Each structure stands twice: as C-alpha cells, then as structure tokens.
Amino acid sequence: MMKQHIINSIDEASKVIGKTWPLYTFVASNPLSGYENSSFSEAVNSAEKNFNANAFPSAALYQQAFKKGDIDTTILTGLLKENKLTESPEFYLNLLDSKKKTQVLNENHAVDVVMVKWLSSFMDEGLAEWEMPYKTEGFYTAWRLLVVYDSESTGKTALKDIPKTSIATLEEILKDYKESDYTAIFTHHLAALPGWTGYLNHRTQSGSDWQKEYPIEAMDYLAARLWTAKKLNSPILPSKVAENKDALVFKIQYTFLKAWEQSWQNQLVKTLENESIATTAVENAVPDAQLVFCIDTRSELIRRHIESKGNYETFGYAGFFGITMDYESLNDGITRKSCPPIVNSAYKVSEIAQTNKEGNLKNYQNKNSISIFKEYFRKRMKNMIPSAFGYVEGSGLFYGISLVAKTLMPRKMYQLEDKKASKVEGMCQPDINKSIIENSEDVGIPLTEKVAIVKSAFDLMGWKQFAPLVIFAGHGSHSANNPFSSSLDCGACAASPGRHNARMLAKLANLPEVRQVLKEMHHINIPENTLFLGAEHNTTTDAIILFDSEASDIHQPLIHNLKVSLIQAQKTATEDRLGNKGNSVSSAEKKANNWGETRPEWGLAKNAGFIVGPRNLTKNTNLDSRCFLHSYEWELDTEGKALEGIMQGPMTVTQWINNHYYFSTVDNNVYGGGSKITHNITGKFGVVQGNGGDLKMGLPLQSLFGSDEVMYHQPLRLSVMIQAPLTRVSEIIARNEGMKRLLDNEWIYLMVMDPTSKNEIFNYKKSIQWKSNSI
Q1: Between vectors from CA 356 to CA 351 and to CA 357, what angle results, nearest 5°?
Q2: Residue 84 lies in a domain
Q3: CA torsion 475→628→658→83, rounded to 10°?
Q4: Which secondary structure element, helix H or strand E, spans residue 432, and what is its range?
C-alpha cells in the first residue's frame, strides 16, 4: 500500500515540472505546462512558491513600457479602479519597486550541489572522455555502487546500508512521515532543480536512445536525493514558509500586465479594422510566383519585402509543411525529429541521388566519412588527458589562423560555409518512407497518403489559384559559437531547419500521379506549367536559397527573375531589421559568423500575436515581426475542419513559444538561460552558469534584453485573432476541451473578426461567451 502511494505521489508531483529540451533540439515550451489546468493567476502563484521565481514582469519593465507609451494610461487607470486600487500608476510602480524579491538559497542547497554532480555525470551524452561506471545498470544502481566512495560529500557509507532499489530507499526514508505529506515532499525536491528534472522528464517521455541505454526515472532520482538529504541533515519535508508576496502586490502586478496586454490588443484591432475592408477586394491576376513561409514572426518581415518587389503572393503555413517526419542527415547519419513535438512522426525522410548524380553522391559520402573521422580524432586528442597538451601545442597554429579568419573576415567565412551547406540539395532529392519499425526495412508510402499531405496544405491555406512557380520556404538560422542556435531554427520542426520538409512537399506536389488524383477526386486543378520548389529562408541574413537544381529550362527565366527579386528583398529587409542603409546584407552576414556576436539575431523576441486569416488582412501593414501569420480563407472552409486543425496545432505551438519567451523574460535566472558570458556546456545537451548549478531551461538574457536592464522582448501573453464566423469558432472550442481550458484559464487571449457580421470583433470570455470589442 505504501509503495503504491509513493508511486501515485511521484506522478502527481511530477506534473509541476515542465520539459527542458536538449541544446540540439531546443524546442520552445511552456515551463509551467504542468499548471495549465489552473488559471494563469493560480498557476503563477503556485509556481512562485515551488520555484522561488518571479512570475510577472519587474517594476523596472513595467516602468519602461509605461514611459514608452506601450501601456495606455486610460486602460491602466480603468483597470486599477476596477480592482479598487485608487492611487496613481506611479504610486503603484514605486510600491512594486520597493517590494523587489531578494534571492535566497534553497534550504536544500547543499543537496542540490551533490545531485548536480551525479546528474551531470550520469546524463552525459558523450562530452566526457571518461564515462561514469555502471551507467547501463540505471541511475539508482550506478549511484548506489559509487556513492560509497564519495565520503567528501556525504560522509562514510557502507554499501550494505543503502537499499538495493529506489522504492525500498523511499519506503525507508518516508516511514516517519505522513502519507499526506508525500506529494509535498516530492514536489519540493523535484522543483529544487527544475532544469535538471525537466531534462529528466524530457528523456523519460521521449524514449531517446540515451534513455534506453542508460535509464533514469524520477523515482530513482528522488531516492538518491532524499537519501543524500538525510545524510546531510537537510530537511526532507519543506518547512512552512510565508507567502512569497502579499495579495496587494500580486493584484498590482497582474493589473499592470493586463493593462499592457489590452493596450497592445487595441492597437492590433485598430490596425486590422483599417485593413479589413481590403478582404473584399477583387482577386488579382495570377501572380508570377507564390511563396509559402512558416508562420514564424520573422516571416512577417520578409513577406512584406518580397511582395513589394513584384507580382508575388505569399502565404503562411506551419513550417513543417504538414509532414510528420523524422529526417536522416546525410552529413552525420543522425535521424532527428522534424515536426511538432506534440505529434508522433509517421514518416522518415532521407536523401537519395538525383538522376545521373549517383557518382557525385558517392564521392561526397566518401569525403564526408573522412571528415567525420578527422573530427572524431580531433575531439579525442583534445579531450584525452595524455594527449591534450601536446595536441593543442601542435595544432595551435591551425586553430589560430581559423580564429583570426573568423574574427577579421566573418562575412567571407559565412559565405564559404553557406555554399558548402547547400551541396546536398544540389545532387540529392528527398525520399519519404514510413517511419522505421525496429528490424524492418523502409516501407514506401501509398499514393493516397502523398495526396493527403499535399491536399491538406492547400486546404489549410485556402488556396485559390496556382502561379507558374510555387515556393515552399522552410527556415533556418546561422550563428557561430552559440549553444542555443537550434532555438533560432523552426519550432514547428522540433528546432530543426525546415528546408527538408519544404523540399519533400515540393517533390510530392510535383508528382504527376498526385496531381491527377487531386484533380479527379478533389477538384484541385494544378496547371501543367506550375513547378513547386523547396527553399530555405535564412532568418539571420534574410537570404533565400531556391533548391532548383532539377528545374527544367522552361522555368529558368521565371526562376532567374525571382532570384533577382529575392536579392532585392534581402537588401531592404536587412535594412529594415538592422536599421542601417547601404551595407545591411554585409552586416547581417558578419553577425551570422562572428564567434563573439552575442545577438546574431533576435529570433521570435517581441512575439505577441497570432493572426489567422487572408493575407489582405495584414498585407499593407508593418506588424514589426510581432505576429505569427497563418493563411486561412473562411469561405473555402465550409465545414470548419481547416480552422479546427489550425487551432489544435499551430495555435498550441505558438502559445508554447509565447510562454517560453514570457517566462524567460520575467525570471531569466530560473526560467531563462542567464547570461551567455558565463555559459558552460554540460554533457552536450545543456548549459549551466559557471561551474555548476541548475540546467538552464530557457532563453539567454541576450536573446531578450538589449542590455542587462533594458528589455527588447515585451512579456505579454499570446493574443489570437481569427477571421471566421463566430459560430464556427464557438463550435470548434466546444468540442475541444483542452483548447477551451487554455482559453478559460487565460493562457491565451482570443479575438474573432466575424465576416458575417461586417467584420465586427468579439473578445472571448469564459465558457464560450463573447463580448463585442468596441474601442
């Protein structure tokens, strides 16, 4: 009975821990995802107690927003009065500033230090040259067999005095505590190092190869931790502490946040109301090219600049392009997820040679094998104690030259690396198969599934006509010396570049048999002269590469014209983004390959909105890269299935991204990544500050702040605007309980522009109630 109660209590306590994603797939996620069943205010209040972390912007950030006019004084004053706060905004800002929280050590700090040592050794993924013994036996067994030699941390211990199983250890330690206290005990000890336990959570749920080979479970960790706490005379049951703040401070902070959010929403509504009349405009002639970009906020900038360069039409679609796939890299042979983390991968995509380029591919693979061995040898020589000093001395000149080149000629080095990175697409084509089942061969996918992938893309975007060129542009980033570089890639592709998904969709859409079925069965008529191409938008430089090596001569003039326009768009987009004229492209390329650059690009900083509707709703507006944009035509979606898919998938993902940025900003020490200046990589998968401490679970300070004190990202909850009939949106929410819970609990704001009611805008209230928005 005690055993089952312990198991149940661990399961309950584990809900407060989010997921810490590894550096190589640093997916944006809500660190408080375990609290989403509670209202936002209840959740952040609980999390503040568990993590000793800030959950609202500081008084200094509110002050910056207030001075800039980002918080409307009329809105703020009105909300203060509603909450019976009768003093001036300045009075309450001063009050908040006087109530700043002081950092205090966890009462189990000594235990934290010991457990970080064990976790970093056991969970290492190949960085350490000498592996921790007994890892294949699992964390608890390995710890038990080795801790007897760790007298410096926990004193002398005999192996026979430590139970052989983790459950036995917990039963022994907890026998003097009430069962009603178990959940509180486990919650406290899991929350003490939320970054590390978040990564433990990620490993156990992802079923990675590292987890299969070297298993670690929450029960094993808690057993070792509580045993250590007892040995160090640290408290097992957390002491009762006073509330982190008084109710007045909480109320003031939440009121200022809501005023800030409403101020931004009102500006967005004004902008869209001014543009909404354009949605009834007559359709233009067939464009010269159509380009589909990820809904990513950075796409908003490049779409504006491309449209201004010619007769081009752009669309927004989730950057995995509807293909739930894993991708096997030709360069290292590693298979990585390339679709949203919330869905299972149905397919595996790999590279095969283009027609008549088998020899090119073979030569590339041979050279690549040699390069992989050289890199492996270099790392071995550098890390092994007997050879490290001699290797560094001998290779110093080579690395010195390389360092000087990257310092003095970062742009040139970037261009060389960029050219090398595109070699694969010049000789290969993507090949799609069913996800590999253990001990079986790859199995191709039937025509019906190929058609479904392509049809789904056109359905969700509300496609009406086809240009001679249709470009699916995934996006990726480029930066040097940046542990968090994957966080700048495509979130919809599990923090991988979207180029491979884009290439795969283009290939499927070009298949004659796919087009034939689309025409005969689904009335989607793709003209014979329409060519689909994959592409990649580099968000650091705003360059767009077309993967056109297999394009026919017929399309070359169109492709040439588009490339010229894309170069022009890159120039004006980088000028817009970086604020400098004349040498903006050069500046962007330097930033991309400068090993000392702390801010190669801003990523999705400043994200605040998600707009679902036709391009005409936002086309003539500069949204300052603050909005995710998903194409949608409500009149073509008669049953609401496309909109439901958008709200179930992309809306959820954008909420994760938004919360990731929000919490990383309001408490960068706990929820964020801290300063890059003192980062150290541990185990290949994570970063710690200095020589230890908790694993960083969020974004670095430099990705969110213009300086240590001045914010760049504005921490606001996501505001979603959908143009669709109100009844349709209500019906979708009613049959999706998880979606309704997020809305009711105010993790997301939702506004609907109803085209059947003269585009009147309605704000969502609890329990699928709506209030007309009248500014």
Answers
A1: 45
A2: no
A3: 170
A4: strand 428-434
Q: For residue 591, give every residue at least 6 positions away whose Cβ sits within 8 Å of its Cβ, in sequence order, or none.
A: 410, 479, 540, 597, 599, 600, 601
Tell me: pLDDT of 364 over 90.
no
Taking every pair of Cα atoms in the chain, the longest distance, rounded to a whole number of angstroms, is 83
* Strand duo 769-772 + 760-765: pairing: antiparallel
| Cα–Cα distance, 720 to 415 (Å, whole number) | 38
Q: What pairs with residue 681 in β-bridges?
A: 687
Over 486-498, what HEC string results? HHHCEHHHCCECC
One-letter amino acid of 299 = S
For residue 734, with 0-12 CB atoms within 10 Å meaning exposed, 13-18 middle and 19 or more buried, which class applies?
exposed
**Among 503, 505, 485, 504, residue whose Cα is nearest residue 495:** 485
* Least confident interval from 190-204, 266-280, 667-681: 266-280
Q: Is the separation of the CB atoms in 495 and 476 below 8 Å?
A: no
Other residues' Cβ atoms within 10 Å of the Cβ of residue 381: 16
- Say yes or no to pLDDT of 43 above 70: yes
Q: What pLDDT shows up at residue 11?
A: 95
Q: Is residue 450 part of a domain?
A: yes
Classify residue 132 by burial, with Cβ atoms within 10 Å: 0-12, 13-18, 19+: middle
- Our count of domains for the chain comes to 1
CA distance 697 to 151: 31
- Contact in structure between 598 and 675 (CB atoms under 8 Å): no
pLDDT tens string 718-737: 999 999 999 999 999 999 99
User: Contact 573/302 with Cβ under 8 angstroms?
Assistant: yes
Rounded Cα distance, 544 and 539, in Å: 9
Q: What is the CB neighbour count within 10 angstroms for residue 375?
A: 11
CA-to-CA distance for 297 and 492, rounded, in angstroms? Answer: 12
Q: Distance between CA atoms of 476 and 644, rounded to whole angstroms? A: 28
The separation between the first and the last C-alpha atoms of the chain, rounded to the nearest angstrom, is 60
Which amino acid type is present at position 769? Q
Comparing C-alpha atoms, which of 671, 661, 658 is closest to residue 705?
A: 661
Give the H/E segment covering residue 571.
helix 556-578
Q: How far apart are CA 612 and CA 316, in angstroms?
A: 9
300 within domain boundaries: yes
Distance CA 587, CA 580 (A): 9
pLDDT in tens, 456-504: 999 999 999 999 999 999 999 999 888 999 999 999 999 999 999 999 9
C-alpha distance from residue 599 to each of 61, 297, 355, 560 (Å): 20, 17, 42, 33
Task: Give, for 665, the enclosing helix (H) or strand (E).
Answer: helix 650-666
Q: Can you give the length of the chain in residues?
A: 775
Residues with Cβ < 8 Å from 99, sequence gap 6 or more?
A: 245, 249
Mean pLDDT of 83-95: 96
Helix (H, G, I), strand (E, B) or coil at 762: strand
Enclosing domain of residue 525? 287-390+402-603
Give, in degrees to the nearest 5, the angle at Cα 491 between 468 and 199. 160
739 belongs to a structural domain: no
- The answer to whether residues 621 and 301 touch, using CB atoms and an 8 Å cutoff, is no
